[in-house]
Write a structure and sequence with these properties.
Belongs to the metallo-dependent hydrolases superfamily. ATZ/TRZ family. This protein folds into 2 domains: 4-81 and 407-473, Urease, subunit C, domain 1, CATH 2.30.40.10; 83-396, TIM Barrel (Alpha-Beta Barrel). Helix content is 37%, strand content 22%. The chain has 15 helices and 20 strands. It has helices at 50-61, 104-118, 122-138, 152-165, 189-206, 227-240, 252-261, 268-274, 292-301, 309-314, 322-327, 346-361, 372-378, 382-396, 445-455; strands at 9-21, 24-35, 41-45, 68-72, 77-81, 83-89, 141-147, 168-172, 174-175, 213-215, 218-219, 244-248, 282-286, 304-307, 332-334, 414-418, 420-421, 438-439, 461-466, 469-473. The strands form 6 sheets. A 4-stranded mixed beta sheet has the order 3-2-1-4. A 4-stranded antiparallel beta sheet has the order 5-16-19-20, covered by helices on one side. A hairpin with a 5-residue loop joins strand 2 (24-35) and strand 3 (41-45). The structure holds xanthine.
């Protein structure tokens, strides 16, 4: 593996913003962050410029100034932790935006299975996966929990590409031995397990300690996996202690199907529990229609939820109750869920998480009958959706001590955000291509961040680092 950041220590200067807790952002101005050659944050010093860093921090770190790479954020820029996309299908990337009026089960048959099946072609898989990684990096996604396809070699290729392009990733070879079309199915439970093992072995071969890329056990969803496959995947999880990802309680028709296929289970989540899959390392995508008992079971087992608001709206699945899950102690992060979701951007998912939480309490919404105070509480603030996009996501993928914030000991997974600053003498015709966010200079920082959340896009994402390595730099026109 290439050493992060060409083996250089780094000094980063400017404004740093990150979540201190669910409802609080911390703003660190005129701050110096030191990142060592392994990509780890080794010092954070507020009220510190380059001269002070050189005279006080470098001797402590035994750094010599000539060997340090310096990055300085401008006044209109800030550093923010990289986004964690806790649920997306790299194999569906070419289909983003294409869903018509479909709902989950017909969407799978019409758009999704044919696209995934076509990625048995390695050249096509290379093109799709390369572009998916490049695009998500450009939107500030430094960690992604990917579903690939049932094909081993193309799945392994996705892992290779994440490693070489520098994106932190969980790569899942999809298991499905029923429900899918004959042309896109595992032949047997044994073959599904053997193929999963082949991908695990491959990733161990390219990143022995899973420092950047990790395998993730991926039963597609309960209706697509036979009891035998789920039982063997449960055994594989206990043997390897790897994370697991799947879908749960996304759509009414799907839930009815699960009830029919697994009549002995008390709920959808209970199906996974019976096979020993529901545990601290499980990421459950969607969780739109959880019952009270189901959510309690998920909380007791310590499983996590990937909230996918773009997808839940696009394919008409419904509105997940995020506050309710958080209050039960369930860890929640955000997922773009491409291509159920139409956007590669976690920022878009954050903005949709806010809007969907408002919809829950509007007239006709699921929570409209709650008392006023409860309705207010159900709404997610800018601070909260940004927490879900970073620290919350880090918890969901099991990396809460490593990524999601700026703390000594964490890794430098970060993005430099630039906002268009309207200067006093600006004429209309000198608008720069800084994206949709115009800052006039009088806004306090929390309002600048709110403008970014609701109007920002990849034009504002100037640079992106993973483990200290610069993995994306926006080329200005
Ligand atoms: O949003 C979703 N996308 C998928 O690919 C899928 N497969 C099962 N269930 C699913 N839900």
């Amino acid at each position: 593996m290439a050493p992060p950041n060409n083996g250089k220590n780094q000094l980063i200067l400017g404004t740093f913003i990150h979540s201190r807790k669910l409802d609080e952002l911390q703003y660190l101005h005129n701050t110096a962050v030191c990142v060592d050659t392994s990509g780890k944050i080794v010092a954070i010093e507020p009220e510190c410029d380059q001269a002070k860093a050189e005279s006080t921090l470098f001797p402590r770190l035994r750094w010599s100034a000539e060997e340090v790479m310096v990055t300085v954020g401008k006044d209109s820029q800030f550093f923010f932790p990289g986004f964690v996309d806790t649920h997306l299908h790299a194999s569906q990337y070419p289909n983003v935006g294409i869903f018509g009026k479909s709902t989950l089960l017909d969407w799978l048959n019409t758009y999704t299975f044919p696209m995934e099946a076509s990625l048995s072609s390695l050249p096509k898989a290379r093109r799709v996966y390369t572009r998916c990684i490049r695009r998500t990096l450009a939107h500030g996604t430094t960690t992604a929990a990917y579903y690939a396809t049932i094909h081993v070699e193309p799945t392994n290729l996705l892992a290779d590409l994440c490693l070489s392009m520098g994106q932190r990733a969980f790569v899942g070879r999809v298991c499905m031995d029923q429900l899918g079309p004959a042309y896109y199915l595992d032949e047997s439970p044994e073959q599904a397990i053997a193929a999963t093992r082949a991908t695990i072995d491959h990733i161990r071969g390219i990143d022995a300690n899973f420092d950047l890329v990790s395998p993730i056990i991926t039963p597609r969803f309960a209706p697509a996996c036979s009891a035998d496959t789920m039982r063997q995947l449960g055994e594989l999880q206990r043997e390897t202690e790897l994370p697991v990802q799947t879908h749960v309680s996304e759509n009414a028709g799907e839930i009815a199907l699960v009830r029919e296929l697994f009549p002995d289970s008390t709920s959808y989540a209970d199906v996974y529990d019976r096979y020993g899959l529901l545990g601290e390392k499980m990421i459950l995508a969607h969780a739109v229609h959880l019952s009270e008992e189901e959510a309690d079971l998920i909380a007791r087992r310590g499983a996590k939820v990937s909230h996918c608001p773009c997808s839940n709206s696009a394919i008409t699945s419904g509105e997940a109750r995020v506050r309710w899950m958080l209050e039960k102690g369930i860890g929640v992060g955000l997922g773009t869920d491409m291509s159920g979701g139409y956007s590669p951007s976690v920022l878009e998912a954050a903005r949709q998480a806010s809007l969907v939480s408002n919809h829950l309490v509007m007239p006709g919404g699921k929570l409209h009958e709650l008392p006023q105070e409860e309705r207010e509480k159900a709404k997610l603030s800018v601070e909260e959706v940004l927490y879900l996009a970073t620290r919350g996501g880090a918890e969901v993928v099991g990396l809460r001590d490593k990524i999601g914030a700026f703390e000594v000991g964490m890794e430098w997974d970060a993005q430099l955000i630039g906002l268009g600053m309207v200067c006093e003498e600006a004429a209309e015709d000198d608008m720069e291509d800084e994206g949709n966010v115009d800052v006039f200079g009088w806004e306090p920082w929390d309002e600048r961040v709110a403008k970014w959340v609701f109007n920002g896009d990849d034009r504002n994402t100037k640079k992106v680092w993973v483990r200290g390595r610069l993995v994306h730099e926006r080329k200005e026109n």
